[in-house]
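To the team - tryptophanyl-5'AMP complex, inputs and output below.
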Amino acid sequence: MIKKTVLSGIRSTGNLHLGNYYGALRNFVKMQTEYNCYFFVADYHSLTTHPDPAHIHENAKNVVIEYLAAGLDPEQCTLYVQSEVPQVTELYLLLNMHAYMGELAKTPAFKEKARKQPENVNAGLLTYPVLQAADILIHNADFVPVGKDQEQHIELTRKFGRRFNNFYGVEYFSEPQAFNFGTELIKIPGLDGTGKMGKSEGNCIYLYEDAKSIEKKVKRALTDAGPTEANQAKPECIENLFTILRIVSSAEVVKHFEDKWNACEIRYGDLKKQLAEDIIAAVDPIQKRIVEIKNDPQYIRKVIKQGTEKAQENACKTLREVREIMGFKAF
Ligand code: TYM
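Output:
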């Protein structure tokens, strides 16, 4: 039976956080045995915020290490770094000819970024979804495991692929679907009472963060004055704590605190103590693996070399076919 193709990536803007892990990476790990998987480090995507060149290489390497530490097996999946596969950027250029200013400028992600960095609204920011579409379409992925915030980018990818097919009268690109094992895509909230946990939101708990620092961050999480009526709905900041609790803690622990909340007996200090403990326990094995892998640079080099070769092979094939469809011929 032919395996369906899966692809996903994470930007290399620093260490990975709980949102990256529970929204995406954990699913990469679960999918790798059943599907034909491509997972990569989106280092070009990190350029839109003009990072220091001194950090580019280390950041990308760190994400590779964290992928491996979380359980990606380079013998089961193809693991690579975006900038090592130049066919992606050529496809990006070609797709750009069929992506329009108007549609790109009105995406919520672009508007949000333009608001956040008004001094640096570069063309890379505008065409960010086209590069993401190139990432996905270069391997003609069927499924893309991502968190809730990426849904729109996958929708745009489908649009670009469909447009290409219609324009050239082919059925070349398939329609990739955002994926989370048949359930809603996940949004891990920040602990500051705001929407999502994110690097640019500055509210992350990282996979590679020491226990003391995790405790401190959880302790500082925003709470309210507490419930005043039995079974009342939780305000957003409390719901956020419970959302993370449901992910890292056992069903008994969650029930215990739900019952306390419903009986107006909850003590946020206890809730936070338990939450911090369970987060620390969840990241502990990953942290141990990170240390091991960091100490083995030869292994990291081997993994990246092998992944680059496998990714390039498939990417070259796609690009050859796309160029032919578009009318490019060998001289
Ligand atoms: P990035 O690097 O912001 O995030 C990587 C993955 O982590 C998920 N994620 C979250 N999920 C739940 N809750 C959160 N708080 C949270 N924060 C992050 C994201 O949904 C994502 O799945 N544009 C992409 C990277 C990318 C990509 C691709 C992804 C480039 N090309 C092709 C898939 C396919 C991004 O910036 O993700």
